[in-house]
Amino acid sequence: MKMAELGGRRLHYRDDGTGAPVVFANSLGTDLRLWDAVLPHLPEGLRIIRYDKRGHGLSDCSKGPYKMGELVSDVEALLDHLEVREAVFVGLSIGGMIAQGLATKRPDLVRAMVLSNTGAKIGTREMWGDRIAAVEKGGIAALADPILERWFSAGFRRTDAFHAWRNMLLRQPVEGYLGCCHAIAGSDFYATTAALRLPTLGIAGSEDGSTPPDLVRETTELVPGSAFEILRGAGHLPCVEKPEDYAGKLTAFLRAQGHV
Ligand SMILES: O=C(O)CC1=CCC(=O)O1
């Protein structure tokens, strides 16, 4: 179990393997176990860094609301602490927004990025305001069913594994969840991501009800020369539903960059 003390805040992370660094950033309401099923399918020779963003998993849960800039600064400080440079940064959903912010702020840290199930902007201020109000009133349980319908395809929702992800969402600290909802509501990366020049792969899930394929494609295409892949039969978390396929797309991208 590793905790980094970063100027008064502690982030929980994992740092496994040696070689070229790949950093993974999770979505809203999930922790670093999001990537568990993908990692065994990745090639040797990688240093795999995963972390829990603030208010999630085993990281400190500071009082919200959070700003996207704070979430970007957190992982920037973590990577400086770990002396990581030139990583491939894989970000899913809010993690993909963090990827876009970090690539803009610290191009020395990010040599290529994977924008998975994300957008330059996700939803509207009104939509996030409604979600925040509903969670403040009834807790995450009040919205768990519709959230999980967007996260997973109907087939996956009939599996035993589905209930573990449901429990992860329900055990998520409300303060951290709401803090990140505020950060997403206030973020729009269209202009800054369009100015980025780095190898970029977009990954979408055909059944994703949160960040549909068209949004992921539109976001990815902001970066000239980017590639885009759809994983069929997967919702918002294709790394959970289709881990081998997800790892295959990621590995092909890493190889194309000469990262492995
Ligand atoms: O909870 C959702 O609807 C999915 C989601 C949006 C941003 C994020 O990180 O997850």
TrEMBL record:
Signal peptide residue numbers:
none
Cite the GO molecular-function annotations of the record: 3-oxoadipate enol-lactonase activity
- According to the entry, every stretch annotated as the AB hydrolase-1 domain falls at 22-247
Q: Which Pfam families match?
A: Abhydrolase_6
Q: What InterPro entries does the record tag this protein with? A: AB_hydrolase_1, AB_hydrolase_fold, AB_hydrolase_sf, PcaD/CatD
User: Which one GO biological process term can you cite for this protein?
Assistant: beta-ketoadipate pathway
Q: By its UniProt entry, which NCBIfam families does this protein fall under? A: protocat_pcaD (TIGR02427)
What is the protein's given name?
3-oxoadipate enol-lactonase
Tell me what organism the protein belongs to.
Answer: Roseivivax sediminis
